[in-house]
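debug: dumping io for the single-chain case to check the tokenizer round-trip. Nothing else runs in this session.
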Amino acid sequence: MTGFSPEELRAARDRLVPDVVASGLSVLFCGINPGLMSAATGHHFARPGNRFWPVLELSGFTPRLLKPSEQEELLSYGLGITNVVARATARADEVSDEEFREGGRLLSERVERLRPRWLAVVGITAYRTAFGERRAVVGPQERTVGETRIWVLPNPSGLNAHWTARSMAEEFARLREAAGVEDRRRGGGPGEALRAGRPS
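debug: decoded output
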């Protein structure tokens, strides 16, 4: 169903996925590091089962469900995507703490240059390691990068059973409201699409 053989996915290990960025974004979303499907396609959050794109729609950041291949459309909404660690791996636990810390340093440099209003890190463990904030919890952080505020979001991976699409959408919507981004859905709250029949 993925269109790639196991060999092709293995060959994507350590590849880089280009950032989707511009200066002065409302929100710069930051993943942990690319998975092999993202590296093979060149599209962020491309693995089937990852809930990033559905949750963006449910929370009102986008007016419809975007495909990973439509990621450049995010820029028209004042949104972008980068990663803490650039290289692709099969699992996030293949990234060392040292890589995360170096990734946090490079990410801070990127944010200081691009100056988004908010940096949204999707993954509490990655944020804690990259920024040395061991007690951080999901939500807005006291730390800033220059004038950019930071919000930690739950990891949208399908392996994260602690959060449903509905509860993730509620947290993403809190960020959207804090960032002053309009609700781009055609009506209803974060759960409307779910109540209309879409699975969580």
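debug: round-trip ok. The first strand starts at residue 27 and ends at 31.
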